[in-house]
From TrEMBL, chain A:
Keywords: ATP-binding, Nucleotide-binding, Transport. It comes from the Bacteria. GO terms for biological process: carbohydrate transport. PANTHER family: MALTODEXTRIN IMPORT ATP-BINDING PROTEIN MSMX, OSMOPROTECTIVE COMPOUNDS UPTAKE ATP-BINDING PROTEIN GGTA. One of its GO terms (cellular component) is ATP-binding cassette (ABC) transporter complex, substrate-binding subunit-containing. The keyword Transport applies. One of its GO terms (molecular function) is ABC-type transporter activity. Residues 4-237 form the ABC transporter domain. This is sn-glycerol-3-phosphate ABC transporter ATP-binding protein UgpC.
From TrEMBL, chain B:
Signal peptide: none annotated. This is Carbohydrate ABC transporter permease. It comes from Solihabitans fulvus. It comes from the Bacteria. It is found in: Cell membrane. The chain crosses the membrane at residues 32-54, 98-119, 131-156, 162-185, 206-228, 265-286. Belongs to the binding-protein-dependent transport system permease family. MalFG subfamily.
Length: 366, 301
């Protein structure tokens, strides 16, 4: 059990110009917390994890585990266990040997190793496979062995680097829930890296969003969804992605296809304070609704309907200013509009509108 | 899921019949021709060795005849002569060869495994020049090297000693084996190294306890290569070992059967067979490791 802290930690890869893979990362993880690092590929999330593991140098700043500076401590001295994306099982050892290897290196008595391995195997439903070699296991079983190898050691921090990305979709959803439950039960501080925002939202107590090595926002999944700090987080979190469009601004609100969507006073004041003529307007597909033709709303031509069963995603073109923009609307799955149909779309609730600075992408209100 | 499985099975079945059809399409005649050609090629390959074996039982005077026969006063006399030392201290040569070949194998495999691992996993200044020099070294013709190596051995006082010859063999074996093993280590995912580091191994521990056990096929090949390099070599051995009969290796010793005016074919053949046996044994020991796929199953498959 331990808290983890990145203290302005940077990793700079040499090159011309040098690449700041992780740039001044400042992040505190509480004891027992499940923190997810999420971002697109190349965002530095894996590098940040490897810095914590000791597999990557820390060029600036420091890393602390349990209040101790471990910046220059080799991996074996950090009391951490890691689950790799490829699992990285030892092919020449059986499942039991794989799981007990770390204990064996520490000189734990054979009987105790056996007991601890058996216990972890029971937890992960691997008891039947203890004598098998990794190559005789399925992908899901290998993944569990990799988890088991980490659990057996009872480390103070778990690191997981996209552990589910090699599983098929169904197994991934199952395992996702299992890992979250396991973490809950063991109460071990866990740092989990993924590019999948659904995993991030469902598993993490808190989620840290990275882009180009920079921390964009770190908050609970709910807060990320409701109050994204900038346009990148707004577009990254949520599936399908938020509709983010640059729209002209009037004294009352944002101008969309003839209608003016009223905006909060605070946001408008801030925008006029910076004398912005335009603003990045964000609205989630689920915050838009189809309305009858008499009501006020944007006219949209349906271009694509994706039926998901419970609901359907309607993609359509809306006129904004001179050109047209594509919007996605989440509608009831039983009565989707048909292709080419003209529909009217309205904002369900103006509190669900997100406004961002058109250049910096920063959020315009609290 | 069941539909998928069934469809897959049908597809697999179809693929199998297609392959079978293609195989069945070869006519009987072409099949016979193909096998006859293969048998002939095999016979041609085996015949020289077989004839050495046949000759090894014949007395020297009958070894080369205008109308050769399979059995012609054949006996085990040649073997008895060679082993008893009547023609030179065969057993001493044998001992020398075994010692030199084994030492070469152990030293070359150890050096090239450590070097190969370093160049496979670490980036360090001089990496490219090092690999390049290994490549260049293999391009040198042996004969050019004899005189300079002779001078070097004299300078460091190893001329005429077995260890000097072992070092000379290592200079040819290590560069080649390093390339081989680097290639092999490259196929072992570095995730395994990192998993080992996380489990508490030192960098050398990773090499010793994870990478080496996973590289047995590669190590077996390089060991076999190093052994053969030293076992059958003549030019270096005759130049660098002392002239006394006791210190010769087998390959050098065999020359006593080839004299200026006559060649003792029977004895030479018998000695050659005896020389080949250890090489065959080493190959037999090593070949069961020459299976690939030991590293399979470690990562996603």
């Amino acid at each position: 059990m331990a808290e983890v802290a990145y203290v302005n930690a940077s990793r700079i890869f040499s090159g011309n110009p040098p690449v700041r893979a992780v740039d001044q990362l400042q992040l505190d993880v509480a004891d027992g917390e499940f923190l997810v690092l999420v971002g697109p590929s190349g965002s530095g999330k894996s590098t940040a994890l490897r810095m914590l593991a000791g597999l990557e140098d820390v060029d600036e700043g420091a890393i602390e585990i349990g209040g101790k500076d471990v910046t220059n401590v080799p991996p074996k001295g950090r009391d951490i266990a890691m689950v790799f994306q490829s699992y990285a099982l030892y092919p020449h050892m059986t499942v039991a040997e794989n799981m007990g290897f770390a204990l064996k290196l520490r000189g734990v008595a054979k009987a105790q190793i056996k007991e601890q391995v058996a216990e972890a195997a029971k937890m992960l439903d691997l008891t039947k496979y203890l004598d098998r070699k990794p190559k005789a296991l399925s992908g899901g079983q290998r993944q569990r062995v990799a988890m088991g190898r980490a659990i057996v050691r009872e480390p103070s921090v778990f690191l997981m680097d996209e552990p589910l990305s090699n599983l098929d979709a169904k197994l991934r959803v199952e395992t996702r829930a299992n890992i979250a439950a396991l973490q809950q039960r063991l109460g071990t501080t866990t740092i989990y890296v993924t590019h999948d925002q659904v995993e991030a939202m469902t598993m993490g107590h808190r989620v840290a969003v990275l882009k180009d090595g920079l921390l964009q926002q770190c908050d609970t999944p709910r807060a990320l969804y409701d109050h994204p700090a900038n346009a990148f987080v707004a577009g990254f979190i949520g599936s399908p992605a938020m509709n983010l469009k640059t729209v002209p601004l009037t004294a009352e609100g944002a101008k969309l296809d003839g209608i003016v969507v009223p905006l909060s006073r605070a946001a408008l004041d801030k925008a006029s304070g910076e004398s912005l003529g335009e603003v990045t307007f964000g609205i989630r597909p689920e915050a838009l609704a189809l309305v009858s033709s008499e009501e006020q709303g944007m006219n949209m031509t349906v271009e694509l309907v994706e039926e998901l069963g419970a609901d359907a995603l309607v993609h359509g073109a809306v006129k904004i200013g001179e050109g047209t923009e594509r919007f996605v609307v989440r509608v009831d799955g039983r009565t989707p509009p048909t292709l080419g149909q003209q529909v009217k779309v309205a904002v369900r609730d103006t509190t669900e509108i997100h406004l961002f600075h058109p250049e910096s992408g920063d959020r315009l209100e609290a | 899921m069941t539909v998928d499985a069934a469809a897959l099975r049908v597809a697999a079945q179809a693929a199998r019949t297609r392959v079978a059809g293609r195989r069945g399409r070869r006519s009987r005649l072409s099949s016979v021709g193909l096998h006859a050609a293969l048998v002939l090629a095999a016979l041609i390959a085996v015949f020289p060795v077989f004839w050495v074996l046949v000759t090894s039982f014949k007395p020297d005077s009958r070894a080369v005849e205008a109308t050769p026969k399979l059995v012609d006063h054949s006996s085990l006399d040649n073997y008895a002569d060679v082993l008893s030392g009547a023609k030179g201290d065969f057993l001493a040569w044998f001992g020398n060869s075994v010692l030199i070949a084994l030492l070469t194998t152990v030293i070359a495999v150890f050096l090239s495994a450590t070097t190969g691992y370093a160049v496979s996993r670490f980036r360090f200044p001089g990496l490219r020049p090092l690999m390049l020099s290994f490549l260049v070294m293999q391009m040198f013709p042996f004969a050019v090297l004899i005189v300079p190596l002779y001078n070097i051995l004299i300078a460091i006082g190893l001329q005429g000693t077995s260890i000097g010859l072992v070092l000379v063999y290592c200079t040819t074996a290590v560069p080649f084996c390093t390339y081989m093993l680097k290639g092999y280590f490259d196929t072992i995912p570095s995730d395994i190294d990192e998993a080992g580091r996380m489990d508490g191994l030192s960098p050398f521990g990773v090499f010793w306890r994870l990478v080496l056990p996973l590289s047995t096929p590669g190590l077996a090949v390089t060991a076999f290569y190093s052994f053969l390099t030293a076992w059958g070599e003549v030019a270096f051995a005759s130049a660098f070992l002392s002239a006394s009969d006791q210190s010769k290796t087998l390959a050098v010793g065999l020359q006593v059967f080839v004299q200026q005016n006559r060649t003792e074919w029977g004895h030479l053949a018998a000695a050659s067979i005896l020389v080949a046996i250890p090489a065959v044994l080493v190959f037999y020991l090593v070949q069961r490791f020459l299976v690939t796929g030991l590293a399979s199953g470690s990562v996603k498959g």
